[in-house]
Amino acid sequence: MGLSTHVLDTMHGTPAAGMQVSLFTTEGEAATLVKQFTLNADGRNPDGLLFDNASLKRGTYRLVFDVAAYFKARGVALPEPNFLNRVSLDFGIADPQQHYHVPLLVSPWSYSTYRGS
To answer: Which domains, and CATH codes, for the chain?
Structure first.
């Protein structure tokens, strides 16, 4: 239970190891940084859950994935300005007793997400 994320690089068919991610709590337009981390070799937070079940609260959150920097570091030639810079996902936690998994499938030109399990 808690909150987790996982990023897959669909261009290379691999986890997005090395991507920088920021987690925020949000209230209206205001956002408060909770933590920043670099994805591990499996494309996940190296510390495990972003919030465990006891720490996760009902409310709204934002995950920001530094997509352009990740692909540039992988040697992908991106146009200037690049199509995707940072992908920002705003989502809500209605029941903090449930597990919320926020996966991101990403390339330099597209992304998709869903509520995983």
So the answer is: 2-113 (2.60.40.180)
